[in-house]
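pasting Glycosyltransferase RgtA/B/C/D-like domain-containing protein for the record, 414 residues
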Amino acid sequence: MFEFKLIIRNKKWFLIFFLVLVWYLQSKIPLWRGHLEIDVWDYYNTISLFLKNQSFASLKGNEILPGGLLFFLFPLLLSINNFTYLNFLNSFVVLNLILLLLHFLVYEKNLSYFKLFPFLLILLVSGPILLFRFELFVSLIVILSILFWQKKRFFLSVLLLGIATTIKLYPIFFLPYFLYLGFINFKKEKQLTSTFFLLVYFFLGALLPLFIFTVFGGRIEQFIYSLSFHSEKPLSIESIFGSIFIIFNLALKGMPPPLLGTHGLWGLNWSSVKPQWLNLVSLFPLGFLYFYIFFKTKIKRQLSGSILFLIILFSLVFSKNLHPQYFFWFIFLMPFIKTKKGREIEFFKISFLVLITILLTQCLYPLLYTQLIEGFFKDGRGIEIFYLLLLRNISFLTLVIFSFHLIGVKKNLE
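structre below
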């Protein structure tokens, strides 16, 4: 029995290292690297300015939150002896590969063998985009937060959740669920006080990177600017609302709407709707989900990976920006989805929908992104690529509805 388990474990790590190798090789191929490394070039310029002035004080027009800026210090340290863009890029890629391996180490027993193959297959077809972003950093901290909560280290868990929120904002969507779970898990006479301190620890976690950021010369107004920068981003071409807007333009004018190149993305010029309104609209599905969870279901005292998975899905479904890396916010939660005995097939159904969605996403960005922008949007040619984008969004919408049906209605997944 021991030898059998050892063989399985070795095969598991063989598959994981195969994934690492494929991602690394893809990251060297211009077809992937060409578009993906543009963000790393911006990161390099940001950290070069920091290195020149020994301070974040001179940063202007910066969209990265303090936790993300601090992450850039790690590839800087790895390439400090010969600080060039190429060395910074290589350090960035290697650091993300290490973070990927750490994910599999900290998953522990949550990544059972029947989940391993579909999970690795999803990552394999997603392409190497995560090697050029810092999603792996924030997702690792979120995973640690979940694991500490499972071990009933509630205060340390929300502290980490607060830290993660200063890297990317999406972990804050989990906070109401964590607070509610804390409330029902604490002793009755300490429920209000302990829940309040959970909130305090969350804000302490959020303040820690912000404090370190100020130690390195950063200013609070820079942090506020980065928040407003994201809120003012236009409707992106990849979003579901964006697809609807494009369809209306094609039907009424026979051409896609003009592009709006601003805030680091290609957006759509929907002049009659302010970006801030779209931010509010995107919260409606999440509000509905929380209403359903709190008032229409009986919540268990244990943290549910399935509910965390749903929270991210519902936060993205009407989001004005649906960039490829955002899909990994819920993909890295999949190992925490628990299946009822005899219902393992339900996990594979969700995995299949995620697989289709992420495969289509990689085809659109980076593989066919030039044709999408230059051909379809600017010249009105190659409408087939837009159909591919539309199919991706239909696939994602199907995933959201199907997951809610399985988790929220039928309760086949926990």
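The mean pLDDT is 92.
The two ends are 29 Å apart (CA to CA).
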